[in-house]
Amino acid sequence: MVLLDDLTQRLQIDDPEERRTISNVSWSQYEALLSDLGDMAHYRVTYLDGVLEIVSPSRRHESGKTQIGTLLEIYFLETDTEYFPTGSTTLRKEAQQAGTEPDEGYCIGTDKEFPDLAIEVVVTSGGINRLELYRRLGVREVWFWQNNQFSIYHLREEVPIQFAQTFGYEAIDHSEVLPNLDMNLLAVCVRNPNPLAAAKEFRQGVCHKKSSWVYPTTQTT
């Protein structure tokens, strides 16, 4: 097992998307590593049942997450949707032995301890199962951006039975957290390599459609 005391010194990552996984890590060691890393955005740390995963995001990864975040903020503004961004804030529950830092996170309607929506940009597959992780954290909906498309999962069961293979989440075509959002339009604009052109196209599309939308009511829980 890699000793965590000098882990930050030993992480000399050549591949910008290299993933390191360490087993048999205690919760106290996980928290100590988070404290040691501080605000170093270069590393993303995930923990589940004693398994620690550290990823150094690539430029492609960071570009994708930023593009998605920019477009969603345009959507919130144009539709007058109350939102509270959580960004890559560390989400953790010791009792559930789970902790992670999503690429983007949002509370909708009211601010909450854990976001209603978590977004993951997947450049390299494998590692800790994110749906199991987010189920334990009680995140209602999870989006994965992978291979230039979105996969959307909505939490149905706290104890997975019917949706055991997807850890209590159901795969859906359209967001239930943001039901009026055109996910196809969002995906097209995220794929656009020109951020300014993408933002203009998305804003125009949102403005064109919003007159026929039914807006969600403000949540109180």
Automatic annotation (TrEMBL):
InterPro entries: Nuclease_put_TT1808, Restrct_endonuc-II-like, Uma2. Residues 27-182 form the Putative restriction endonuclease domain. Pfam families: Uma2. It comes from the Bacteria. PANTHER family: SLR0445 PROTEIN, SLR2084 PROTEIN-RELATED. This is Putative restriction endonuclease domain-containing protein. The lineage of its organism: Bacteria, Bacillati, Cyanobacteriota, Cyanophyceae, Neosynechococcales.
